[in-house]
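Intended use. Records like the one below are meant for learning the mapping from a protein sequence to its folded structure. Do not use them to infer anything beyond what is encoded.
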Amino acid sequence: MTLAISFVWSRWGFDRVSASVERPSGEMSVGEVMRETITLRNRGAPPKTWVEVEDRTTIPGVAFGEVVSLPGVVGFRKFTLEGRMTRRGIFTIGPLVLRAADPFGLFPKERAFADQRSVLVYPRIVELPDFAAPSSLLTSDTSRRRRTHLLSPEIASVRDYNPGDSVSRIHWRSTARTGKLMVKTFDQGRVSEVWVIFDQHAATLAGEGAESTDEYGATVAASAIDRYVRQQLPVGFASAGSPPLFLMPDRGPEHRSRILRHIAASRPDSARPLFTLLAEVERHVGQGSTVLVVTAAPNAEWVEALGALQKRGAQCVAVVLDRGSFGAEDSNESAVDVLVGYGVRTYVVKRGASISGALSQPVLPGLGEAGVGRTREVRV
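Structure written out for the chain above:
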């Protein structure tokens, strides 16, 4: 008799319990809190002393789960679950699962509600000091000029008229002199490009999860891109993560979004080391360009390559993620010393340190170990 009652209680009662979930729409960023509201409804089933609710997710460190009761025959419960985003990436959330059983726990049952969907979590964006001021912000005349198809106050040159060219672009003085239609080409003005190179070579990484050089590096790279795009500077990007991405310098929110989405989704890869990335970027870098490298790599060929770019007139900046502080057995302190010797403005970021604080104090020449230790150990 007990078995029969328990079986009917479990099957008939649970079928009349339903659930719905309200999840936030759009993307998230590391550090933000995701909140979702779950509603349970009992439509005439026996009271439930416990119902286990779980919204399954692959988001690291997040567990959307609760055990609630439905004491009435007819009624509902509404409650909120939340979790903080600690790592960037593409994750899934859902389905929403309910579990319950009869009062004796003899016939447990499980049902799924709501669909599974993907969640893109962007890297954290922090406010950075002007640690890598591009040449356009400095007093010099080494910035390159770049032609553009857009109208500009500065005329770069003239060329022959092509069908479809606007009449407003005709350069009448040159037309009168040459006896044929000539049109103006325009100049963007003084251009100081910023190249951000994010090293995701798997062999150079240290640490795990949110406390890894990959996650810290993503924060530095994304924050630098955000800063310089907001300053209306052309920003290029190179990363050999999975998948790789190489973008020529450009401006605008769409360009920013494309890079940040890539950083959010990319993962370390063993295909190409940092030296290869620098070789690809080197062909596009001239005097007045700023090259920002974010890496945890130890001393190797990449250090000499960056030093060579510095000697050619590019402004090179290195953000070195201290391997030892992230638990690596080897060190990259010698890389810092060599970079400083080449005149490369170098910053060291340690695990647990404030990124903005670390990037406000470059390693000074001649200080050796003391220079590295100048990064502040203050948490964000």
